[in-house]
Amino acid sequence: MLELIQETMGRILYNIPPSPLHAQIEITNICNLDCRMCPREKLDVTQEHIPFERMKAIVDRLNGVKILTLTGWGEPFLHPNIFEMIRYAKQKGFWLQITTNGVFKNDSLVPRVVESGLDSLSFSIDSPSNGLEWGHHSNAGMERMRQLIQARQGKTPAVTLQATVHKGGGEQVMEVIRLCKSVGGDRVNLGRLDTRFAPEMERPSPREEKRIFRKANQLGRELGVRVDCIQYAISQGMERAVYRLIKRALHRMGRYCLKTYNYVYINNAGDVTPCCLLPNLSMGNILSEDLAGIWKSSDFNDFRQNQKKICGKCDLWRIEYSDSE
């Protein structure tokens, strides 16, 4: 609780911590799906697996980091060394999470994931419905998710169903929440659609978005499913209530992004960047520089002061709704 209070006050006052709490390593940009909303093809990222030895060298230099995500703009479980990576990161004491599309090569991966020690696993799924025109839909992915939840027997990894909200997609969101309940998932996480990389797609207006979030929150309460959305509410219990009251103050009324306060994205070359959507905006290279030094560098401070200009209309981790449409 004390750490939560300290972080809350730090965000409100925008006192940057001495080092990032959360790091994400781009372990692969190779994927077995081609989702319309995914910017992988447009971000100019190298589509390759990071060498295992380089990943270990990066992990060894994550001083001060507590939460580690092993996910780039690809499918993590395609990496030939993914389980060795999980084992190495867990030996270093990190709380470890991965995002997947669930389309594993075969059923044999399911027990290996459960037994790996992974703390949290997010499945990207926009709708259980067949014939979905946007996003991705895979019966194989959902079946792997069901198998994994059943195999873990109430233990780790915690399972999140992660979905983006599209124009007219309110019912798809409700389907995801119902699916989470039916399969025994732990929570649903809703995110805004980024139309900068897929201008042909549409997201809901601010009014429709608010209506969807409120309806999703209500359905989640009725079913006993936690539904998180940065723009509406996150966490549970008293923390959730407090977040709803002070969420705008947490990023200085729109001046700063909620994500970049204590997070870094590290690309496959070891370059430390402010965000997964800025994989080539290097603040320094962790393989040759100290992470704390990079974090407090003039380049990073310049980004913080000018991030709205640098990030443009991106509002994925902001409370306010941009006029990017």
Q: Your description of this structure?
A:
The protein has 10 helices and 10 strands. The mean pLDDT is 92. The longest helix has 18 residues, at 206-223. It is an alpha/beta fold. 39% of the residues are buried. Strands 7-6-5-4-3-2-1-8-9-10 form a 10-stranded mixed β-sheet, with helices on one face. Helix content is 34%, strand content 14%. Strand 6, helix 7 (206-223) and strand 7 form a beta-alpha-beta unit. The protein is globular, with a radius of gyration of 19 Å.
Supply database-style keywords:
325 residues, 10-stranded mixed sheet, alpha/beta
Strand content: 5-15%
Question: What's the total number of strands?
Answer: 10
| Spatial order of the strands forming the largest sheet | 7-6-5-4-3-2-1-8-9-10
Shape annotation: globular
Straight-line distance between termini: 40 Å
- Rounded to the nearest angstrom, the radius of gyration is 19 Å
How are the SSEs ordered, and which strands pair?
Elements (H helix, E strand, L loop, with lengths): L1 H12 L8 E4 L26 H8 L7 E4 L11 H10 L3 E6 L8 H7 L4 E5 L14 H14 L5 E8 L4 H14 L3 E6 L13 H18 L2 E3 L8 H10 L16 E4 L4 E3 L10 E2 L5 H5 L2 H14 L14
Parallel strand pairs: 1-2, 1-8, 2-3, 3-4, 4-5, 5-6, 6-7
Antiparallel strand pairs: 8-9, 9-10
What is the compact description of this entry?
The chain is of the alpha/beta class.
